C-alpha cells in the first residue's frame, strides 16, 4: 500500500480523529492519535479504547475460507479504508437467549447483524438479504481480511471500508439515503436488545455501529468529498427532513436526538440542521397552498420540538435580520419563518381555485367555498401556532427572538393603514392575518373570563424599550411634543411576557386583520368602478365591428379587464371568508374585552372595573400614561365590533357587551379624554350598530344591556346629549356634514332606549337641573330640523323644476349640452334629496318624541320663537299652494312620505298646545303663520286615519283657535302699549325687553332670552365678537323696573281710553271682543268648501 495519503484521506482522517477513531488508507489504527479526540459518550455507552493487537473472543468454530484478494487499484494503492476502532468487549456470553440457530458464535452474530444493518456481504454469491433487499459485496474488505488472514467475518474495525464501498455501489451515489436506512436498522437492533445486560458485548457492537453510522451520515452532509462527491450546493439534509420519518430516507426522532447530542462538540452538525431549515425556507418562499407545502410545515414542526435545534435556528442570520436591511414586503420571503407564515388561501392563485366563476355562482356555493377555505386556513394556523408555541416554550432566548421577529413584521408594516396602500411596499394580508391569529392564540392563557391577570399588563410598557414602535402613531390625547417628552423618561425594570404579547397582539390587529378589512372595503369600491368601466367599454364594440384587426384588439383588452374582475371577485370572497371566521372573531372579541377593562382601570384606578363600576365623570387630571397611548387601542375596539355586529352578530354573547358599553359611555361622558373627534364619533357608532335589530334580538346586540345596566341607565342619556352638542364643532373640515350622521346615530340609540321610563325621567331631570345644557341641546335640535327641512325641500323644488323642463313640452327644444347640464343637475339634486331626507325624517321624529316628554323645556323663551317660526314655515310649505313645487315623481324613492312628515309636525304642535309661550310664539310669527294652513293640514291628514285620529285632529284645530285668539289678544296688547321708547327695545329683535342684561365687554343692554339664544350657537358677544358666557352678563335691574312701570302705565292708559270710547259708543267690552266663538272652531268655521282652490292634495298624493 502506498504511504502517501490523498487530500481526501487527510480530510477524512482528521474528521474521524475528532469523532473518536483513527483511520488510514491501510486500515491500521494508531491508539495514540485517536484516544485524545474521543468525544464524551452518552451515559449508556462505554468509552472507546484503542483496539488490541490480538482479539480475545474465544473461537468457537473454524474460521471461514478466505476469499481471493481483490485486484489492486489502477494507481497501485489499496482501496481506501477508514477504521473506527471499538473497545474490546469482555469475553462473556450474551445474556440474551440466542436465536434458534445452531450454536451461533459471537463472531457469527456480529457478522450477521452488521451485514444486515448495512446490507453488505463478504460473499459474492449473496445478492439479496433475507428480506429480498439488494446487498453490496464489499470486495475491498474481503481483500483486507485475506491479507490479514483473518476469519471471513464482518467486524466493527472493518466497518469503515465496508461503508465506503457500499456507498460507492449504491444507486445514484446518494450516501445519506443509504446511511439513513442503516441508521434505522441499527436502532431497530438496539431496541431488540433493550432488556439485555449492560455488559453484554452485543450492546457494545451495536452502539459502535450506531456511532459509526451517525458519523458517516454527518460526513454525507458536511464532507461529501469523502465519498468522492463534489461539494454540494444544497444542504443534503433538507430533502430528508421532508421525507416520512418512518421510511429509509427520512429523519427519525432517534437520529435527531443523536445529532443534537453532538451539538456542543461539533458545530458542523448544528450548522447542518440550521442550513437545512434555511434551505427549506427558501424553497417554501416560492410555493403556495396549491403546491405540496405540507412536508415543509411538518418538518419545521418536528424540528422545533428539540430545544437545541430551536435555539440554533433562531440564531440564524435569516431568522432576525436587521430592520434597516429588509423591506416590509420581503419579511415574508427573506426571513426564516416568513414563508411558513405567508402561506394562506388568500394568495391570488389559491383563491381562484376556491372561487372559480364566483360572479356567476349562487350564495350557497360561495358560502360552501368559504367554509372549505376557513377549514384549510384553521388547520394551517393550528400548525403555525404549534411551531410558535414550541419556540416560546423551548427557552428564554428563542422566545425573545421570536417576539423580536413578530415585532419586526408589525413595526415595518405601518403603511398598511395608509389611506391608499401600495401593495408592493407592504406585507401581504396572508402574512399579517396569520401573525395576528397566532398572537391571538398566545394571549389565550392569560385572558380568562374574570380578568384575573389584566393587572399583569404593565402600564409602563411603552417606557421600557418596548418591542412595539409607537413613535409615529397618533396618541389618544397628547401631541407629539408631549408624547416625546413623556417617553424620554425610561421606567425601571423589564417588561413581562404577558405585556409583550398583549401589546404585540393589539398592534397586529391594527396592522393585520383590521387593515385587511379596511383594504377590502377599498377593493370593493374599486371593483364596482371597474365593472362600470367595463360595462361602458363593452358598448363601444360596434365602433370596431367593421375592422377585424381593431376588433381583435378590443376583444383582447376586454378579456383582460374581465379576467381582472374575475380574480378580484375571488379575492374579495376569499378575504371575506377569512375575516368571517367565527373562531377567529371570538378570539378578537376576547382581546377587545381585555383592552376595554385595561383602559378603564387605567383612567379610573379606584374602581378596579369590572369589580366596581366606573365613577363618572372621570377626574379632570388625566393620567399621562393614558394620554400618550396610541389611539389605535380604541380604534381596534371600534373596528372589531363594527365588523362583527355588521356581519356576524350571532357570535357576540351578552356577557361580552358590558365592558364595551362601559367604555363607550365613559368616554362620551368624559369626552375630553379623547382628542380625535372621529374616534369619539366611533363610540357612538358602536352603540348605533349595537342597537340595530338582528335575528332573535329586536333591540340589537346591546339593546338589552342599555335598558338594564345600572351604569347605562344612569349615564347614557347625558353622554349622548353631551356629544350631540359637541358634534356641532369638531374642528375638522367636514364637521358640518359629519354632525348630521353622528346625530342620526344618536337618535337611533335614543329610540332603542326611549321606552324605558327611567331614561325619560333622566331627561326631565336634565331639563331642570342642567338648564343651560338642556337649552343648548334643544337649540341645536331645532337648528338641525330647520336646516334639514330647508335643504330637503329646496332639493325637491329643484327636482320638480328640472323634471318639468326635461319632460315638459319645451324639452324638445333643448340642445345636447343644455340637456346634459340639466340631467347632471337633476342627479345631483336627487342624491342630495335622498341623503337629507333620511336625516330629516329621523330628526323631526326625535323632535316629536322629545316635545311629547318635555313640553315645558321646548317652550322656554330662549328657543320657543325659533321653534314656532320653523314649524309655521314648513307647515306653510307643505299645505298651502306652495306644495305644488314639492311634487316629484316617486317621492317614496327619496324617502319622502309627505303625510307622515306632516303628521310628525302636527304632533309637535299638539305636544306643545298647552304651553302659553308656544301659543304666543306661533301667533307672533308674522312671516308664516296663517290660520288657513291648520285647516288644510287637517283636511290632508283626514285621508290617513292611521296617522292621526279624529280626536287628535280636533285637538289640533282647538289649538289653532287658541293661537288665533292669542294673536288677537297680542295685537291688542301691542296697541295698548302704543309707542315704545327705543331704550326699552331689544337691539337685535326690536321687541320690548322683559329681562334686560348688560353685556360685560360691549356694555350693550339686551334681553336675557335673546343673548342666551345667541350664545347657544355662537359663544361671542354679537357686538364686538369677544368671548362671552351667559354667566358673565349683568342684570340691568334699573331698566327692568322702568320697563315694568312703562307697561303698567301704558296698559292702564290705553284701557281707560278704549273703555271711555266704548262707553261713549255703547259698544261691547274688550273682554267680549276678544273672546272665543262658542259652539265651534274659528279655524274650522273658515275652512273652504270641498273643491275649493285652497284644497291642495297633490303633494300628499305624490
UniProtKB/TrEMBL annotation:
Region (Disordered): 1-100, 810-832
Feature: compositional bias, Basic and acidic residues: 816-832
Database matches in Pfam families: U-box, Ufd2P_core
Subcellular location: Cytoplasm; Nucleus
Record keywords: Coiled coil, Cytoplasm, Isomerase, Nucleus, Rotamase, Transferase, Ubl conjugation pathway
Biased composition (Low complexity): 26-36
Residue runs in coiled coils: 513-547
Chief location bin: cytoplasm
Assigned protein family: Belongs to the ubiquitin conjugation factor E4 family.
Protein name: Ubiquitin conjugation factor E4
Species assigned in the record: Trichodelitschia bisporula
